[in-house]
Amino acid sequence: MHREPSSVFLINMMGGVDICPSVEIMTITSKLCLQGESSLTGTQVAHQLVVAIRQKCSPEEVINILKELPNSGENSDQEMSDSSFNPLKIDVFVQTLLNLGSKSFSHSFAAVSKFHLVFKALAESEEAQICILHNVFELWQNHQQMMVVIIDKLLKIQIVDCSAVATWIFSKEMTGNELNDAKEKFAKADSSSSDSEDEAAPKRKKPVTVVDKPTEEMVERMEEKLEAANVDQKRLFLIVFQRFIMILSEHLVRSDTDGRDPDTDWYRWTVGRLQQVFLMHHEQVQKYSGTLETLLFTSDLDSHILEVFHQFVALRA
C-alpha cells in the first residue's frame, strides 16, 4: 500500500522506546489517582465515559461528558471549542478509549475512527497533539507494535500532524540514554506490514474503468496538493535535523562542561541514526541541502555534527 512520504519517514524515525515482550496496561483509574486534586474528578468522568461508550454513545455525547472536567492547562478559562489545550480531558479520553479498545488492533482502530470528531476537537494545537501521543506511549510503552499502528492510524486520519510526531520523537521522554532500541523494531514492524499489503495487491482483480481526461480545475487542485505536500515535507525534514542538532549539541556541551568523554554509546548511536536519515532519504534531503546548509548546518556548528552533513554532501557531489 502506498503511504504518504512524510508518514513513511516518521514511521522509520519513531521508536526511541525500550520495548519489553510483556504487555502491561496502566488503567485510567490508577493514572488519574496520581494526579493530585484532579484525580477524583478525572476518575469519575472516566467511569462515566466507560459506561457511555459501552452503551454506544455518540461523539457529541462524549464531548459533553468531557466538559465536566476542569482545565488544568494555562488557558483554564477557555472552552474546548476555543482551541484551549486541556491535558486532563486528553488524558481521560485517550486512556479510557484505548483501554476499552485494547483487545485487538481492529478494536483500537474502530474506537479511534468512531470518535474521530472528539480527537479532532481535542487536538487543535501541536501541544495538544503531543499530549495525545504521550498518552498513547504511556499506555502502550510495553507493546511496540500496538503503539506503532495506533500512531500510524492517527497520522493517516489527520488527528496528529507529522510535525507534532517529529517533535514528540525528540522529546526528553523519548530520547533518554536508556531508550535506544526501538527505532529498528518500529521500522521492521511497519515494513513487514507494508510488504504484506504489497504482496497481496497483485492478487486482487481490479475492474477496468475508463478514466476521463482531468479538467483544468482538477489539475490545479492536484498541483496545489502537491505543492502543499512538498512544503510539509521540507518543514518535517527541517524539524528533524534541527532536533538532531539540538540533542547532539547539548550532549557535547554537557560533556565538555563535566569534563567527560562525549564519545558514549548513546552519542555514537544517535550520530548513526542521523547518518541513516541522510542515506535512507537522500533523494528528498538533497533537494533541501542548500536550505539545510544555510539554516542548520552552519559553520559555527560543532565540527563533529557538521562532518556528518559534509559527508552526505560529498557523497552526492
TrEMBL record:
UniProt-listed Gene3D superfamilies: 1.25.40.180
Biological process (GO), any one: mRNA export from nucleus
GO cellular component: nuclear cap binding complex; nucleus
Superkingdom of source: Eukaryota
Residue span of region Disordered: 185-210
MIF4G-like type domain segment(s): 38-287
Xref: SUPFAM superfamilies: ARM repeat
Protein name (database record): MIF4G-like type 2 domain-containing protein
Organism of provenance: Glossina palpalis gambiensis
